[in-house]
Amino acid sequence: MPKDPEPKYGTPTHESPECTEELLRQSLSFSQLPAEVQAAARRRGERGPQKSPIKKLISIRLSQDVLECPPSQRKGLASTRGRGVAP
């Protein structure tokens, strides 16, 4: 049996029916949904719980010559050991 052709974008299907006035009257606003559904549905841009351990904020003290060194002359952390990195 041949497969039905893919519907054209924007064409209502049985999975995505056309939005009618009746369908809009039957729908609920977000605030009318149960609290557990509201909690599960995150709003766009809202982050979920961290999947990995939360990172800790630290600070380091660097001497002025390390900060003034151009990036092209930096050879990585190993080159700063013993000169300019405060304990």
Describe the structure in brief.
By secondary structure, the chain is mainly alpha-helical. It contains three helices and no strands.
List the main descriptive attributes of the protein structure presented here.
87 residues; 3 helices; 20% helix
What does this structure look like?
With 87 residues, this protein is mainly alpha-helical. Helix content is 20%, strand content 0%. The protein is built from three helices and no strands. The protein starts with 20 loop residues before the first helix and ends in a 19-residue tail after the last helix.
* Number of strand elements: 0
Estimated structural class:
mainly alpha
Q: What would you call the shape?
A: elongated
Low-confidence stretches: none
Cα distance, first to last residue?
A: 76 Å
Total helical segments? 3
Rg on CA atoms, Å: 29 Å
Task: Provide the helix percentage.
Answer: 10-25%
Order of helices and strands: HHH
How much beta, percentage-wise? under 5%
Query: Overall mean pLDDT score?
Result: 76
Biggest β-sheet strands, sense, barrel:
none
